[in-house]
Sequence to fold (306 residues):
Amino acid sequence: MRNYSVGIDIGGTSAKFGVVGHDCRILCRRSFVTSGTMDQGQMIDFIVSGIGTILHACGLTPGDIETVGIGVPGTVRYGRGIVESSPNFPTWQGFRMKEELTDRLPLQIAVDNDAEMAAVGERLAGAAARYDNFVLVTIGTGIGGAVYANGRAVRGRDGTAGEIGHIVVEPRGRRCGCGSSGCVEMYASARAIVRYYRAHSRDNSEGITAEEVYRRAIARDPSAQYAFHRMGWYLGVAMTDVVNLLNPEALLFTGKVSRAGRFFLPTVKTVVDERAFRLPARGIVYRRGKLGDDAAIIGAACRARH
Ligand SMILES: [Zn+2]
Fold:
């Protein structure tokens, strides 16, 4: 019986594989190291061998697997499963990932942007289950997003909709990797938090990460708390546009930085309440995703099935 699916969440430094049952629970998982130098052929080999490893670890055979879903950081033409480009993997231009995997694995395969996969996961088995209108924001090294309106994912003509990280919050601000400048990704991602902390504390010691700033915020370091407040302010400015544009019921935050939500979500809410139209701002639910780092794995596994 084909009772399981494999969900894969590919990142610039690691890829997480999970075997997921029909109940959207992860049966077992493995994480493997990736690198930005991996080209298209290497990634196909990596995925095929990773699936073999995890099936073996779970005591399953390929006959137990119904579908494989893959979440990719970057721009994906999701209908055809083509990765147009990925900032983490510079050689992935027009990468026909779905087609190439279908040649190697006789299974149903889905390829989509990682934030879209996380939104599917949260919708099917997490914090978004009750909302037909919500926006999911992933915050880590970069900022990604996915939009649901009237119960359906909003994808746009090419499937690229939801790039919330590139809402401009400082028109003449920092240069962004996307080619524009002043994108919220430059002001509210992990790197920005470290930058604010360094400037405020004058602590220029090596190796301070956003996670370390979070630990210091818990320990009541005022510079650390300030860093999250400042990041939350910029995020709130971007969310004001989102709220005015889409009138969502909920704003869901996921990704590594979202763990520090209690230090920045109140600021996000304050800024939205101050700036957005009053009716759409009223009663918005601000919360962290429920599935944590598993959201994209679960979404990817379930995506191909639905
Ligand atoms: Zn940008």
Residues 166, 176, 178, 180, 183, 185 surround zinc ion (CB under 6 Å). The domain at 130-288 is CATH 3.30.420.40 (Nucleotidyltransferase; domain 5). The two ends are 18 Å apart (CA to CA).
